[in-house]
Specification:
Elements: E1 6-10, H1 14-25, E2 29-34, E3 46-47, E4 53-54, E5 62-64, H2 67-74, E6 79-81, E7 86-90, E8 93-97, H3 101-108, H4 114-124, H5 134-159, H6 169-172, E9 189-193, H7 197-204, E10 210-214, H8 218-221, E11 229-232, H9 236-239, E12 249-259, E13 270-272, E14 281-284, H10 285-289, E15 296-304, E16 311-312, H11 316-330, E17 335-337, H12 349-364
Parallel strand pairs: 1-2, 1-11, 2-10, 7-13, 11-17
Antiparallel strand pairs: 3-4, 5-9, 6-9, 7-8, 12-15, 12-16, 13-14, 14-15
C-alpha cells in the first residue's frame, strides 16, 4: 500500500471509522490515524480495574429514528435494548426529567391529567416571538419557575453562559411532555452495543484495506503530504493553524469512582444536579450496559473551558467564525471535512454516522 493511492483519515471516532469502512469496501486503501491511544473517539469504552464496562469520556447512549443507520451499525454489533431515563434533583428530591406530568404533580402537589398538564404549561408560559435564544425556548414552553429550577443554573454550569446568550437549538433538544413518559429519548431505536462500543469499532475497522495507527498526531503525518486524499474529522480551526483565531468549545473533566460495596447507587442511569455541586450530572454505567456486578462504577461530569473540545458553543458569532474556516476548507481540493469538530456542529452519534455515509457516497461516486 503506497501513500500515492491511499486515503489518510484523521480521527478514529464515528466519522472517521465509518468513512474508513465505506472507502475500504469500495476498494480504496485507507490509513486511519488517531492521536489518542485507542480507536472509537469519545465513544470508546473499556473495562475499569474492577471489571465494569465504563465510558471514559462520559455516557454515550445510542438512539435513532433511522432504520438505515441502525441496520448499518447492526453489521458490526449485536444490540442490548436500553431506554435512558434521567432524574433532576431539586433540594434533595428527585424529579422525572425531561419535565412531564409527573414532574408537575410531584413538584407542585397537583393531580393533573394530560389535559391538565397542557393547561398548566399554557398558563405559566411566557410567550416569546421571535424565539432566538435558549432562554426564549424554555420560557416560551414552561415559564419562569420551571426555567429557574431546572434549566438556568444547569445551563450556566454546562456552558459557562446564560441561556439568553445561547442559540435556541440548545434548549430545543429537550422536550416537555404532558404525559407520564419518563424516557429521555423517544426514538424508534434505543439500544446499546451488546459488547460495547470499542468492540463495534473493532469490527467496523476489521478490513484488509484499512491500516490503523493510534497515538499518531496529524501534525507529523501531514508533512509527508503525498496521500491521494485526506479526510479530516478533527477541529477545523486546528487544521488551518488557528489562522482566524480559535473556535470556542466547551470541555469536560470526568471524575470516575468505583463503589465496591454498592450494587446500585441510582434509580436511573443519570441524575442531573441543576443547582447543586460543581458537576452537572452523575451517570451509573451498569444501568446503560445491563452488566451484573457486586459493585458499581459512576462518573461525575464537570464542565470547563479548557481541555479536549467536546461541544461547539452555539452562538451567532461562533457560527460566523466557523463559516470563515469553512470557506478555507472548500478551497482544499484534496481534503474532506466531516464530523462534529470538523463541521463545528453538535451531532448525535447517529447524525455523525449519517453525515459520514453521505460524504463517503459523494467521494466514491
Amino acid at each position: 500500500m503506497t501513500q500515492e493511492n491511499t486515503t489518510l483519515i484523521v480521527g478514529a471516532g464515528f466519522a472517521g471509522s465509518v468513512m474508513a469502512r465505506e472507502l475500504a469496501e469500495a476498494g480504496r486503501h485507507v490509513h486511519l490515524i488517531d492521536k489518542r491511544p485507542h480507536i472509537g473517539g469519545n465513544a470508546y469504552d473499556e473495562y475499569d480495574e474492577h471489571g465494569i464496562l465504563i465510558h471514559p469520556y462520559g455516557p454515550h447512549i445510542f438512539h435513532t429514528n433511522s432504520e438505515r443507520i441502525y441496520e448499518y451499525l447492526s453489521r458490526f454489533t449485536e444490540w442490548l435494548p436500553y431506554e435512558h431515563r434521567v432524574r433532576g434533583v431539586l433540594e434533595g428530591v428527585s424529579y422525572p426529567f425531561p419535565i412531564n406530568r409527573d414532574t408537575l404533580n410531584l413538584l407542585y402537589g397537583l393531580d393533573l391529567d394530560e389535559a391538565g398538564a397542557a393547561d398548566f404549561f399554557e398558563r405559566v408560559r411566557e410567550p416569546r416571538d421571535p424565539v432566538i435564544t435558549s432562554e426564549d425556548v424554555v420560557l416560551n414552553s414552561v415559564g419562569r419557575d420551571l426555567y429557574e429550577k431546572f434549566f438556568l443554573n444547569y445551563t450556566r454550569k454546562q456552558w459557562g453562559l446564560d441561556p439568553s446568550e445561547l442559540k435556541a437549538g440548545v434548549a430545543a433538544r429537550i422536550p416537555v411532555r404532558t404525559n407520564s413518559d419518563d424516557r429521555y429519548f423517544t426514538d424508534t431505536y434505543q439500544v446499546m452495543p451488546l459488547h460495547g462500543y470499542t468492540k463495534m469499532f473493532e469490527a467496523m475497522l476489521d478490513h484488509p484495506n484499512i491500516f490503523v495507527e493510534v497515538s499518531v498526531d496529524f501534525a507529523g503525518v501531514r508533512k509527508q503530504n503525498n496521500y491521494c486524499h485526506v479526510i479530516y474529522t478533527g477541529p477545523i480551526d486546528a487544521y488551518f493553524d488557528y489562522c482566524y483565531g480559535p473556535l470556542p468549545y466547551r470541555s469536560l473533566r470526568f471524575e470516575h469512582e468505583h463503589l465496591s460495596d454498592v450494587k446500585q447507587l441510582q434509580e436511573t442511569g443519570t441524575i442531573n444536579y441543576p443547582n447543586d455541586h460543581a458537576y452537572t450530572r452523575i451517570t451509573e454505567f451498569k444501568h446503560l450496559t445491563g452488566q451484573e456486578h457486586a459493585g458499581t462504577s459512576i462518573v461525575r461530569e464537570y464542565p470547563q473551558a479548557e481541555g479536549d473540545p467536546y461541544y461547539p458553543v452555539p452562538r451567532a458569532e461562533n457560527e460566523a467564525l466557523f463559516k470563515r474556516y469553512e470557506s478555507l476548507a472548500k478551497l482544499e481540493k484534496n481534503a474532506t471535512f466531516v464530523g462534529r469538530l470538523a463541521q463545528y456542529r453538535y451531532y448525535n452519534m447517529d447524525q455523525v454516522v449519517g453525515a459520514a455515509l453521505a460524504t463517503a457516497k459523494q467521494l466514491i461516486g
